[in-house]
Each structure stands twice: as structure tokens, then as C-alpha cells.
């Protein structure tokens, strides 16, 4: 009788095959899926349907990142080598490949392709919109 591989063993297998993203990125996505699925299920009439779409997951992760890291979210993503929504898709499907996440037959990596701009999502909200005081004019 062989024992089932642990989550850590499965993550190590992913990292060996695809070292682009650190383990912290996988932990974040895994936890985000659980939280977002729970939130989506609470709003549904059919509680048996636990599936969430790629766009629902991306929007949920965006909100989680902004809530947890605020203006530092873009720096956290950069530290995790996540630069586009496609990177989240890669992580999701890497987790699904070792059965740490489930997918439906309709799920595709393309569901995560270029869904929103990281600059618009994680930088623009923290940019000043206008000056409160005018710039001083220096007289020669």
C-alpha cells in the first residue's frame, strides 16, 4: 500500500517541472480558489455547482491582492514572477495537473489570456489624480 503524496510533495513536483513561479504563488492561488469558490457558491441557488470561471477567479484574486497588499500588490506579483493574467492561468493548470485543483472539461488556459492589465489593476488606483496644491513658481 503506497501513501498518497502530500501537498508539499505535489508542489515540489510542479516546481521541478515548471520553476517559473515560487511556491508562495501556488499557495496564494490555491487559497484564493477556496475563498472565491466559497463566496461564489454562497451567491448561487445550486450549491452543488462549485465551479468558478477563469474570469471570476482572476477578479477575485485581484480583489484579494489589493485588499491584502494594497499599493504593494504589483511588487508582490513581480516577486512571484507573475506579470500577466496568463501567469495565473499557468499556475491554475499546473495545480490542476497534479490534482491540487479541479477543472471542468470546458476550462482552458485561454480563459486567463490577457483578461486585464496589471498596470490598470494594481498601479493606476494608487496614482495621484491631481495636484492638491499648485507647483510653486521659482522666480529668477
Structure description:
The chain has 140 residues and is mostly helical. The chain has one domain.
pLDDT < 50 stretches: none
- Sheet with most strands: none
The rounded Rg comes to 19 Å
In total, how many beta strands? 0
Overall shape: it is: elongated
By helix and strand content, what is the structural category?
mainly alpha
Q: In sequence order, what are the helices and strands, one letter per element?
A: HHHHHH
Number of helices: 6
Beta-strand level of the residues, as a percent range?
Answer: under 5%
- End-to-end distance: 86 Å
Helix content: 40-55%
Question: Tags for this entry?
Answer:
single chain; 140 residues; mainly alpha; 0% strand; elongated
Amino acid at each position: 500500500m503506497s501513501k498518497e503524496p502530500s501537498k508539499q510533495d505535489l508542489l515540489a513536483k510542479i516546481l521541478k517541472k515548471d520553476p517559473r513561479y515560487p511556491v508562495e504563488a501556488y499557495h496564494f492561488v490555491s487559497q484564493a480558489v477556496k475563498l472565491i469558490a466559497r463566496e461564489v457558491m454562497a451567491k448561487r441557488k445550486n450549491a452543488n455547482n462549485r465551479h468558478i470561471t477563469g474570469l471570476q477567479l482572476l477578479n477575485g484574486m485581484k480583489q484579494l491582492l489589493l485588499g491584502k497588499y494594497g499599493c504593494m500588490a504589483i511588487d508582490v506579483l513581480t516577486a512571484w514572477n507573475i506579470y500577466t493574467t496568463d501567469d495565473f492561468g499557468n499556475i491554475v493548470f499546473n495545480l490542476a495537473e497534479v490534482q491540487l485543483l479541479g477543472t471542468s472539461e470546458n476550462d482552458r488556459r485561454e480563459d486567463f489570456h490577457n483578461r486585464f492589465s496589471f498596470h490598470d489593476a494594481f498601479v493606476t488606483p494608487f496614482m495621484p489624480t491631481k495636484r492638491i496644491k499648485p507647483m510653486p513658481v521659482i522666480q529668477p
